[in-house]
Amino acid sequence: MTAKIIDGKKIAADIQEEVRVSVAEMKEKHGYTPGLATVLVGEDPASATYVRMKQKRCVEVGINSLGHNLSADISQDELQDLVAELNADPQVNGILVQLPLPDHIDEETILNTIDLGKDVDGFHPVNIGRLAMKGRNPLFIPCTPYGVIELLKRSDVQLSGAEAVIVGRSNIVGLPVAMLLQKENATVTICHSRTKDLAGHVRRADIVVAAIGRREMITGDMIKPGAAVIDVGINQKEDPTKKRGYRLVGDVEFESASEVAGAITPVPGGVGPMTIAMLLKNTAHAAELVIQAQR
Ligand code: NAP
Fold first, then answer.
1. Which one, out of 2, 94, 136, 222, has a CA that is 20 to 30 A from the CA of 113?
2. Is the CB of 144 within 6 Å of ligand 1?
3. Residues ≥6 apart with Cβ < 8 Å to 211
4. Which pLDDT tens digit goes with each residue over 168-205?
5. Which atom in ligand 1 lies closest to the alpha carbon of residue 232?
6. Ligand 1 pocket, residue 12 CB under 6 Å
7. How much distance in Å is there from the Cα of 214 to the middle of ligand 1?
8. What is the pLDDT of residue 1?
């Protein structure tokens, strides 16, 4: 293997520590404790695990965690009323509605209801719009895309002028990553399921971000020697040596890509740990905005 491993666990731990220090300062200087409200609807085990992890990390950095676990049959109006209550609650700096929501709930309306200053997930259309526009900045950047950029920056990858190819154009990963890289002055190509000659595009890239949801689709022969490769994908691969019968792999074939790339994220231990770290950073930032406004 030739590529440098971009250690997401280590970088996420560094960011978590930075947030812990800034939260301690807010308490000491301003007597202010940031708060994150999590809203979990239903009993999907994966969503429940994500929310528990977010709450645990909040406690570790000194952010108050306020959990709302709701039954799967909650009505649209009841959920909107809860979001309105949290918008008005001064103890709440950030509101995280865990997605996906049940089918009978209109997800877009719920996300639009979240106060712009508490949109720590960064999915409010105004925040996304500002991300897309030149010369404008969102109050909050969506956590996983923010994590991708931090991994690149903290690994000293040159962004300005770089050819960046993003595979995937989802609202939660591919599209915001592309907009962020463009803000950093990279030349960005977005590939998707209708792209012709995907390999040809990826082969030109100094930076490859794979957010496809297809196991090991990007192989070493598609990577330009020395490129930085960020693998957002999380997929299961059968592995009889594991107790649960599978292991996690990314959208990039790590074995072959790491022979060619200059730097690469592993799965697990790359992008995964960054998402919660950036949520903590956004929540602390939301609290800083309130403190500034009170001065
Ligand atoms: P998604 O909404 O399913 O989007 C997948 C994207 O990949 C789409 O834009 C799709 O194109 C494109 N695509 C699908 N097949 C393709 C093909 N054969 N060639 C080129 N492009 C293709 O997925 P997502 O939510 O962005 O998630 C992507 C991956 O990241 C998943 O494995 C997910 O589990 C993982 N993820 C990880 C984190 C984390 O680490 N914290 C967070 C979020 C997601 P079309 O638009 O044309 O359909």
1. 136
2. yes
3. 166, 167, 168, 170, 173, 174, 177, 232, 233, 251
4. 999 999 999 999 999 999 999 999 999 999 999 999 99
5. 30
6. no
7. 7
8. 67
Position 276 pLDDT exceeds 70:
yes
The helix/strand count (H/E) of the chain reads as: 10, 11
- Classify 271 in phi/psi space as left (phi over 0), alpha (psi -120 to 50) or beta: alpha
Pocket-testing residue among 53, 141, 150, 193, ligand 1, by greatest number of atoms within 8 A of Cβ: 193
Q: What Rg do the C-alpha atoms of the chain give, in angstroms?
A: 20
214 in contact with ligand 1, CB cutoff 6 A: yes
- List, in order, residues 6 or more apart from 176 with CB less than 8 Å away: 122, 128, 131, 141, 142, 145
The helix/strand/coil state of 41 is strand
Q: Is ligand 1 within 6 A of the CB of residue 198?
A: yes
- Cβ of 195 less than 6 Å from ligand 1: yes
Q: Give me the pLDDT at residue 295, please.
A: 82
pLDDT (0 to 100) of residue 43: 92
* Encoded tokens for 205: 């890239």
Share of the chain above pLDDT 90, in %: 99
Atom number in ligand 1 closest to CA 274: 41
User: According to the model, what pLDDT value does residue 83 have?
Assistant: 98
Q: What pLDDT was estimated at residue 66? A: 97
pTM: 0.97
